[in-house]
Design a protein that fits this description.
Length: 615
């Protein structure tokens, strides 16, 4: 893995460095296919904007306007043909080029408004401005390059080009008499242009700044500033068109020279980056080869010894230890397997010894745990059996006392004691279930499921709050009646404990496609989704009994009883805000209802349920 990581790292370094060089080389391609055609379109649209403004001032003829439109269309078509070659370099460039397509296609609509007299000069100038702004957005997008000096100079050059664009906007607005709205826009454009020129000149390097400084300090530029001030003041200077036209051409030539210079700078930088990439990649490759040879030589022996250790560890983990654990669960005597490994490497030999020690400790802990669990189970079982015997004798005495009692108050107290004894019997059965044994109660014949539900409700403390609703006549097989009564009683007990005392707990039951389903619903505070998920997992897969987890004995008993008879217990939220427990009894434990006539006759001679003590 370390060698593979080094190879991948070498490949990444080489690819990244080479991609930087290729991207710098593509700067020239982008200039040829996008930026230069865009500059030409901008120049022609600027000229069309000027002559359209003159046409609206009745100072230009229709043939001149038509001729300029043809030149603009030719530049637009050339841009579309060349931009297709480079527009797919990235999603951002493709989006910007599509935006330019959308804007330059509006030229025909702008021209139609001019020809029909629906557009004044201010609206016409702003329509052309929107198209040119999109083209400058394309310039700024494609000028992104990894070489910071070239990118910074390219960004400033684009700003200077945009300053020239602002000058041509002034040129179109400053023709003749200027309206108040045009003067307001003219003032804004003049301020933006002056600020942009002053800011950009300080960021250009000397080779690109000197031609710009020569233009800014020329008499023509100073005359331009005076004319701008006159227009802002409301005047109409003479020679405005000739002065601005000459400066616009000069600025255009200077910007093209600066952009061409930056394009030429990118190629040697790309060569330098590529050379550095080859040097770095070669050095890294040499180091990778040396590392591979050294690792193969030094690691061959280690790999063999580690392979032997791995096989020994797998044998212990997959064969010996499971065999030991299986014997421990059966109560058999076990012998701890040892890991024998001969190694010439001290570290690997120490690992083998440490693994053998860990194995010995794990087996000893498992033996102790098994013995402890078995001892606790015996204690639970013995205590529960003794309690069962005493409780059975107590129930016989209570039954005899109930038959002899004549005072209603005493009879009521005896009934309460009998109910208390029933609950104590259920807790004793819980101890037997925790010990891993089976309770003693059983029935010889199937019992109606309604009677099962009533019997479960009778074993809880707040049985007065339990409402057992009518059910269909299906019966439950006798051998599982005791466990199902205990299971449902535990669920009813939880429902009464975790719900307000003034609310009722409802027990419903009905036949299902695969057996019979009980529902125990309370109207308490409910549980969160995390708690429901945790409890349902425990009910589906009963965990090993943990003595420290005494707060969940009821849940453990329910899961043990459900697993014993393949019963599925699920908890979910109740529409009333509480919790609903659904108990699905498999169809093999459910019998069809018995005939009503024989049953009515039989009820005269025998009780529906009979408790049978286990040995």
């Amino acid at each position: 893995m370390p060698l593979a990581s080094m190879v991948v790292l070498w490949g990444v370094i080489t690819a990244v460095t080479a991609s930087e060089s290729l991207e710098l080389r593509q700067y020239k391609t982008v200039w040829t296919n996008l930026r230069l055609p865009a500059y030409k379109v901008i120049t022609e649209i600027q000229r069309e904007r000027l002559i359209s403004a003159r046409f609206l001032r009745n100072s230009a003829e229709k043939p001149a306007v038509a001729a300029q439109r043809l030149r603009t269309d030719a530049a637009r078509d050339a841009f579309k043909q060349l931009s297709v070659k480079s527009k797919d370099r990235s999603e951002e460039i493709r989006t910007q080029v599509d935006a330019v397509y959308t804007q330059i296609d509006r030229l025909d609509a702008v021209r139609g408004e001019i020809d029909t007299g629906l557009s004044d000069r201010l609206h016409t100038v702003e329509a052309y401005n929107a198209i040119i702004d999109t083209l400058f957005g394309l310039h700024r997008r494609v000028a992104m390059i990894d070489d910071i000096p070239i990118y910074e100079q390219s960004r400033v050059t684009i700003d200077m080009s945009y300053a020239k664009e602002l000058l041509t906007r002034e040129q179109a607005l400053g023709l003749g008499t200027v309206t108040r709205a045009e003067r307001r826009l003219f003032t804004q454009i003049t301020g933006n242009r002056r600020f942009l020129v002053d800011q950009s000149l300080g960021e250009l390097d000397p080779a690109l700044r000197d031609p710009q400084v020569a233009l800014i300090t020329s008499p023509a530029y100073q005359r331009l500033r005076m004319m701008e001030d006159q227009i802002i003041a409301g005047g109409t200077p003479q020679g405005w068109l000739s002065t601005t036209d000459g400066l616009a051409r000069s600025f255009q030539e200077a910007q093209l020279r600066a952009s061409t210079t930056l394009n030429e700078r990118a190629e040697p930088v790309a060569d330098e980056v590529l050379s550095r990439a080859f040097l770095l990649a070669g050095t890294a490759l040499a180091l990778v080869i040396v590392s591979i040879g050294f690792s193969l030589r030094m690691g061959n022996r280690l790999s063999k010894e580690l392979g032997t250790l791995r096989l020994a560890a797998l044998e212990v983990a997959q064969e010996r230890l499971p065999h030991v654990v299986a014997k421990l669960r059966k109560g058999e005597t076990v012998e701890v397997p040892e890991v024998s490994l001969t190694s010439t490497t001290v570290e690997i030999d120490d690992v083998g010894k440490a693994f053998s020690t860990v194995q010995q400790t794990a087996v000893e802990a498992a033996v102790g745990q098994a013995q402890l669990s078995e001892g606790v189970g015996h204690v639970f079982r013995n205590l529960a059996r003794r309690s069962q015997t005493l409780l059975h004798r107590q129930r016989i005495q209570l039954a005899d006392m109930q038959h002899r009692a004549t005072d209603p108050g005493q009879l009521d107290d005896l009934f309460k004691l009998d109910h208390l004894t029933t609950r104590m019997r259920r807790h004793a059965e819980g101890l037997i279930i925790l010990s891993g044994a089976t309770p003693g109660r059983g029935w010889s014949r199937p019992v109606p499921l309604l009677d099962v539900a009533r019997g479960a409700a009778a074993e809880v403390e707040d049985y007065q709050r339990v409402v057992v609703e009518p059910m269909s006549g299906q019966r439950l097989a006798g051998p599982v009646v005791g466990d199902v009564i205990h299971l449902i009683a535990e669920l009813i007990e939880n429902a009464t404990v975790y719900s307000p005392a003034h609310t009722s707990v409802f027990v419903r039951g009905d036949a299902a496609a695969r057996g019979f389903a009980f529902e125990v619903e309370d109207r308490g505070f409910g549980m969160s989704d995390e708690q429901l998920t945790e409890y349902n997992e425990r009910l589906a897969s009963p965990p090993e009994f943990d003595l420290a987890d005494s707060d969940r004995l009821g849940l453990f008993v329910v899961s043990r009883l459900a697993a014993r008879h393949d019963i599925r217990v699920t908890l979910r939220g109740s529409p009333y805000g509480g919790t609903t427990a659904i108990v699905l009894i498999p169809e093999e434990h459910v019998a069809e209802p018995e005939d009503e006539a024989p049953r009515a006759a039989q009820q005269e001679s025998e009780r529906p349920m009979r408790v049978v003590r286990s040995d």
